[in-house]
């Protein structure tokens, strides 16, 4: 990436039609934008499509960029809105770890069993499936806050909502996630117990 001082300098060069500046902007933010999109749409190819469309929109509107706004806030707003539109169209959803899951997945011994990687992967899949059930606007604030580490004020700018609205959505999203997670775990436990009972009955018949 060329030696630019800051985003404002890169954007001004983009406005002059400098292709290297376009490349520098993408190199700086493409990966971060991808993970926001991926944690929203749950599919790598679809996330790449979202990011590609986001940068197309950025470059089309770059001459109208408001220098009073942070570039990453502008970009994240575009990525988030495209991701939410994508979810609504396909009626799909998902992301990765939250506190309620981390509490269950911690290893007190600090040692990994041979199946640790498999178990971790399975748990992530379960988390994704639970998060897929959340409405897109709740999922958006959860992704931006708990996965991207944004403050509620930053999320308000990205989602074009008020700070209190973001806090309320975040509280509701975390509550819904926890309730859905607990129900899923209880169902899994009952299923495992039923399976064990059935297996015991089969052995007793032998």
Short structural description:
The protein has helices spanning 7-15, 19-41, 44-60, 71-90, 99-105, 116-132, 136-147, 152-159, 163-205. It has 206 residues and is mainly α. α2 (19-41) packs across α3 (44-60) and α3 (44-60) packs across α4.
Describe the biggest sheet? Answer: none
Q: Roughly what fraction of the amino acids lie in strands?
A: under 5%
Intertermini distance = 71 Å
- Pick out the low-confidence regions: 92-97, 100-111
Task: Tell me how many strands there are.
Answer: 0
Output the number of helix runs: 9
What would you call the shape?
elongated
Compressed to H and E, one letter per element, the order equals HHHHHHHHH
Residue-averaged pLDDT, rounded? 79
Radius of gyration (Å):
21 Å
| Percent of residues in helices | over 70%
Going by helix content, strand content and strand pairing, the class is mainly alpha
